[in-house]
Amino acid sequence: MNKLIISLALMVSSMLAYTNDKPYTTYTGETLQCNLMEGKDVNDVLKMVKKDWYALSYPAPYEGWVLTPTLYADNDGGYDLFWAGFTTNNADMGTSLDWFYENGTKVFDKWQNLVSCASWSHWDIFEARRPANTLVEGDTGYWAFHSCNFKDGKSVSDLRANDIEWNEFLDGIGHDGGVWRWWAGGGSDTQNSTDYYVNISFSTMNEYGKYRDARMNAMMNGSMPEQIADCAAPRVYSANNIKAITTN
Question: Which residue spans within 111-156 are E strands per DSSP?
Answer without folding.
Answer: 115-129, 140-150
